[in-house]
Amino acid sequence: MSTRRSRVTGRNRWTFAEIHALTDEEIDDLMAGDPEEFESDFEDDGKGIFEDSDDSVDDPDYQPEIEELDSENNGSTLVEEISAEYEAQISRCVSNLGRCSSSEYLSQSINIILNTSNLSDVNNGSNAVNTTPTHTSLSEELPSTSSVQQSASTTGIERERITATVVRLSKKPVKRPRSPLPQYDAEGPQFQTNAIGFVGSAMEIDTQSIELKNILWRKGNMQKHVNEIAFLGDFSLPDEIACLDTPYKCFAFFFTDEIFDSIVHYTNLNAKRQNIGSSFCVTTSEMRKFVGILIYMSVIRMPSAERYWGRHAVTPVKQTMSSKRFYEIRRYLCFNDLSNMKKVGEPGYDTQFNIRPIIGHLNQRFAMVPKKPRLCVDEQMCATKMHSRFRQYLPKKPHKWGMKLFVPCDSDGYAYRFELYSGAGDNIIPNGYPNLGATSNVVVRLAATVPAMVNHIIYFDNFYTSLPLLVLLKSKGIYSLGTIKRERIPNCKLPSDKESKMKRGEVIEYVGSAYGVDMTTIQWKDTKNVCLASTYVGNLPFSKANDGQMQLAKAIRYDRKDKNYLEVDCPHIINEYNAHMGGVDTMDGLLGRYRIRLKTCSYSHRLFYHFIDMTVVNSYLLYRRIHKDDTDHEHVELPDFRFLVGDVLTTFQPPQERNPVGRPPKDVVRSCAGRTKTYLPPPEIRFDQYDHWPNVKDVKGKRKCKLPGCKYKTQVTCMKCNLNLCLLKDRNCFVQFHKK
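Given the sequence above, the corresponding structure tokens read:
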């Protein structure tokens, strides 16, 4: 051991002077030492040793402290207060270090000291106090008491007045919370449900409308009362959905027996169409197992599909179905009668004919869940590079190549329906609606199932936003908000990027009216100019009864020049947009973590895999929504949710398909911490009353009975559930376990 190392580790008590004399290398050696070399001899007085320490670095809910400096004084009072607090922190840490010798407490004390505000940044000629810690050597961060007093009482040089807001941030602030839904104010004014302000006919609204072209913009603020936009509908779950208490029941609510029977019918029909002499015939049970294997593959990743049955095979996959049978089903997999498909150029030709039944069925089932008040519309990519007429290239997406879908989601990521984009000829105008353009018509079609006159709010980006779309949605009692391009605003008075001389945090708002619908356009300067248009919110928050002076929210941004975090004014419309526009991105994140990566050359197969992933994610979000307020219910993570659904699909068989078969595969046994841990099967498998046969093992297989309440050991196991259960004349746990 070196002399420096022995000098550091040989100490059991520390004083301020000794800590101040240590170098960075000595502190590193001390921190890397064996904690057993040090013996803590401090006495606990009932208070935490670091009770008064600043834990802003480790606390994820830490909020910055804001102090408004008095512009009347010269800042000396602030310097004295900070210096006194700084000295108290140092004294406290030194006192703690004097009573203990452990390197752990030394590390915490050093972190506390390094997190203390640096007074050296309050220097001459500064306009703000920089409180960001600079992690340099300990000798630079621990000035003596005399140096602190000297820095606090510097005279002879006149300081400038400090007028800025001081924000103490030791790291990047935490993510902002989601803005709550506006609650009805009983003391506020009453609004009629049908009093939406729209005047005229919906068919008159189009891009060439004279009233929209001649709209007059004036400077002002749109500020609606909270009762005017409060949600008037009911989005509680019906009893049919609220009773879904298992992951598989949530999945089966969307992927019903009807869709399995349809796939089986068209798959067998496709096999006969390709080879009339083929003996291939798939059953509904095999199709369930096929889908279950696909879900297993989304969680358990292998380099290729062959590896799931290879040398390092995945047990649940290998025991469910042979690789030959799996490839045979995938070869003939079909979702529609291809003999009825129209050719290109014929009337009624449908580019999505093969996958159309799956799209229609899932859209119908997804829409059965009551919609939440806030919805958003955005694009979603089904990632693939296969050659197809549906393939798109979006350079700003994480997966740049793929098939594009338009999806309306809520803030949690649940998709209420979807629409596959098939090219420029896909611009379908719904009956009874005007032509608003290809992109705005997408929102009109997706919003067709949104209940009217209950104050739903839809968010979208500048790809869809136009003033005719805002007016049309308002005619149905639906508020809207979205970013917008300046070219889509008639008579726009917002300055262009070249003309704009706005500073960061400045806001320009213009309000106007068309067909009796009030609209607002806002331009806010962040790192760039951001333009938004809305029919319900502007720069100011919503008004309430007996509400005091309205204050703008603050957004925390990083200043590259000063290398610090600053607070800038943020319009309320920005907070609303940021809080509720990310629903589709949330679903994309859940899809990207675990998705079916099986390669294929068929666009219908690739879309079918993507729809299975969407169904599982929707089932997972619905399951969480059902058990949101159930404190006794155990939370299930997404991979475990996929495993539970896959277990039931590969093992469960409905009563109508009970076929006499031999010994079935055993359930999966997972190992945990070196011990064999068995899990109870899902209720769909446990109570299906099919293929549960007792098996007697030798003495080595004797285990505790898995029936709750039974404390005996037994050699009898259930071959399907793979659990030990007593089977005696006076103690028949086997039968009791499989009865509801």
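Residues 1-10, 35-79, 100-171, 665-676 have pLDDT under 50 and may be disordered. Try to locate this feature in the token string yourself.
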